[in-house]
Amino acid sequence: MPKIKDNFVIPGDFIGTSEEFLSRNGTYEDKGNIYAACTGVVKIDTKERSVSVVPQTDTPPVPKVGDIVIGRVSDIKSSVVLVDIARIKGQEDREIATPEQGAIHISNIKDAYVKELGYEFGFRDIVRAKVIDAKTLRLSTDHKDLGVIKAICSRCRATLRRKGDKLECSGCGRIETRKIADDYGSGMI
Amino acid sequence: MSDKPKKLIEKGKRLDGRKVDELRPIKMEAGVLKRADGSCYMELGGNKVIAAVYGPRAVHPRHLQEATQVIIRYRYDMASFSVEDRKRPGPDRRSVEISKVSREAIEPSIIKEYFPRSTIDIFVEILQADAGTRTVGINAASVALADAGIPMRGLVSSCAVGKVDGQIVLDLTGEEDNYGEADMPIAMTQDGKITLLQMDGHLTKEEFALAIELAKQGCKAIYEVQRNALVAKYKGGSYV
Prior knowledge:
Chain A is mainly beta and about 190 residues long.
């Protein structure tokens, strides 16, 4: 194995041994040796004695705690809303690497009493939410920027337009309520 | 195709002037496509190949997905204008087989446990063919995967060896492939583990051992080119 000359590595480059470092992100261990798993710059944490590779390439989007995600409501249960996550904000041009459903629990919708989920979300609404647990993909919309960014009428499927803090159907005039984001209907994700 | 030349090797030189252990000129560039998540263009003599990688992403149809690891799909495809007589476009028996063996050549280099229930799709398009297209495809696909930021154990390098006029030679051209005695494409990881080995024709045990050694040298040379392609694209850092 070639010893690295500088701190730029590509996959398979030998970085060190497991006696020297803990193997962290962007590296892997094989028979006591640590190798780079991605293309980037080696970073050594002298305090923890760990080594990682900071990728210089574009990386596959994986949701982390605090990420803002965009998705579509795929199911509404009695105390939870399921969302098909489509994109992570900031990496919009790349599909999500581990596609899974996120869940917004009734307690994470807003800082107020929620009587019925049907008043806050509708089937097939487009939602912007924040990841609060990356492992189980629990989401929250408890912020003025978060919530429904596009909704359709539950009766006629036409787009709902904002009217004060309520939504009005552009087709049949029906009034509906949602936990709407501040910029509802602007088309910005 | 032209008629068989009398001699394929004359005074240690081949038809295109190369020595027996010499590769054709290589050109390689990473990240040539904007829409793909990762891509690579490679030329090896008369071969011109582009590889694109998408994913990891959702698997369709869903029954193909695996609960513990990512699945890899590899499509090798020749453009209709890639060969002298027009190739009927679309998958055929040959390209389906090459897709399968190429996928198996690439698969061990990918750390698959990181993205369960997802797929990585690799598309290899042969724009111009001149023997050894599968090896060029594997080289390009390997760099395209690294370009996509997919965690890998290392790069896979690949080249062909064969027997022409009774001699073991590296990296056969179309003519040498057609009129030679054997053609053997090989792919290996950078620590020398063989992930692809096919053979057309006959070699003795001694010739085979010699051929493997020659292929190792060829793969090493190609690895350096692959490395340089990634370094040229990413060293200095557009991201971070």
